[in-house]
């Protein structure tokens, strides 16, 4: 890595949606150690959608294994409307027909901290290239 220390590698605002608090905290710590500002760790997609209305966010990371089909449609529509880069963390690949699948990054458990940090850095850079974005 040239020019950036790991502590400023990401340099963006990230929202994490994870119902298992301990898992979410591990993800938060991994991203904080690479310079991400964690906007919030929320347990539900409803909470995430409400937060997106109030806070600027560069990227959303969520556990797609915890989402219902109806929530998937709402979340996909909201993220797409906002042109919000997002990353699904999954135990199994999301089915090809899911509204979340098209154009969304996906990582399967288990993954390394470095792989997660690099993926989120790419999402933040994508968000910055897309500015301005709707609020």
Automatic annotation (TrEMBL):
The keyword Membrane does not apply. SUPFAM superfamilies: CheY-like (SSF52172). The modification 4-aspartylphosphate is found at residue 63. Residues 13-135 form the Response regulatory domain. InterPro entries: CheY-like_superfamily, Sig_transdc_resp-reg_receiver. Keywords: Phosphoprotein. One of its GO terms (biological process) is phosphorelay signal transduction system. It comes from the Bacteria. This is Response regulatory domain-containing protein. It comes from Teichococcus deserti.
